[in-house]
Amino acid sequence: MKKKILKIGALVLAIVLIVGVCLFANSLIGNPISKALAKNTAEKYLEENYPDTDFELGEVNYSFKDGYYHAYVSSPSSMDSSFTLLINGLGKLRYDYYENNVTNGWNTAYRLRDDYREAVDALLESSSFGYNVILGYGDIAFVAPEDKDILDPPSYAIDTSELELDAYYNVSEFGARAGKLTLYIDDDTVSNERMAEILLGIRKCFDEAKIGFFTIDCVLEYSQDDSGNYKHGRVEVNEFLYEDIYEEGLVERVSKAAEAAENYHYAEDAEKFFE
Predict the structure, then answer these.
(1) Looking at 22-26, 36-40, 126-130, which range is the least confident one?
(2) Domain 31-103 maps to which CATH number in 1.10.10, 3.10.450, 3.60.70, 3.30.1360?
(3) CA dihedral (44, 48, 50, 54) positive or negative
(4) Residue (of 178, 171, 170) closest to 154 by Cα position
(5) Which of 15, 71, 95, 147 is most deeply buried (CB count within 10 A of its CB)?
(6) Minimum mean pLDDT range among 82-91, 112-121, 140-149
(7) What angle do CA 194, 199, 202 make, to 5 degrees?
(8) 70 and 63 Cβ atoms separated by less than 8 Å
(9) Are 205 and 123 within 8 A, CB to CB?
């Protein structure tokens, strides 16, 4: 009798463990039945809502982050026409990202951002750029009309409603309008004067490469010594305008911007301390 009870208990425990493992796996990777339902829903939805397009259904993958199946849709004839359908485990459509990604211009904006970043990366990695960049990249600021009052974008951000689907643009011109560089540079000298020299050099390099930018965040710190240590010292400027990078009075403008950055970090640290 005792052995029978132990066998039943072991069987129940095994079933509980199996169910637990299945539930855990389902929460991470989904399950074949729900995936099939999601794919079927996506196919029918595209037929009913986009009948006159060449949209193709790609992969359908489960995301443990939001608990939905993501059905990826794209067009072979349009580089900016791709979007995602969100579908739950019962095969019910929850959201169609077509309007957000395609109609509102975000896919076009992302493409331009990628092109701009690639151009900036290529310049920063080239031998003609004579500074030791520890971290550096370029970005173009965009904002959708409906988000202007919500996200508090920079004043120079480009409205996505200006963008035309699949259109080719001069990313350098967009960079000059709304491009932002972020650079962390190591150097043997850290001073406002050296920062001014570097900013002039950066502007010259970007002008020669015909890559525009509107503003720059730049941090100048000491290089690592032979022992792998860093000397304390830092000069930082934020949102420093391209148009303000010229020789006359530049050291004074850098000094003012560096002081503003230092005061900002001081106030931020003080706020965290008193939380």
Answers:
(1) 22-26
(2) 3.10.450
(3) positive
(4) 178
(5) 71
(6) 140-149
(7) 125
(8) yes
(9) yes
From CA 258, how far away is CA 274, in angstroms rounded? 25
DSSP per-residue letters across 156-219: TPEEGGG--TT----HHHHHHHHEEEEEEEEES--SHHHHHHHHHHHHHHHHHTT---SEEEEE
Do residues 198 and 187 make contact, with C-beta atoms less than 8 angstroms apart? yes
Statement: the pTM of the whole predicted model exceeds 0.85:
no
| Residue at 70: amino acid letter | H
All structural domains of the chain with their residue ranges: 31-103, 106-273
Spatial separation of the C-alpha atoms in residues 118 and 115, rounded to whole Å: 5
For residue range 35-72, list pLDDT tens digits in order: 999 999 999 999 999 999 999 999 999 997 889 999 99
Q: Which amino acid is at 61?
A: N
Structure tokens belonging to residue 216: 């720059």
Nearest-angstrom CA–CA distance, 213 and 136: 14
pLDDT in tens, 203-240: 999 999 999 999 999 999 998 776 666 678 899 999 99
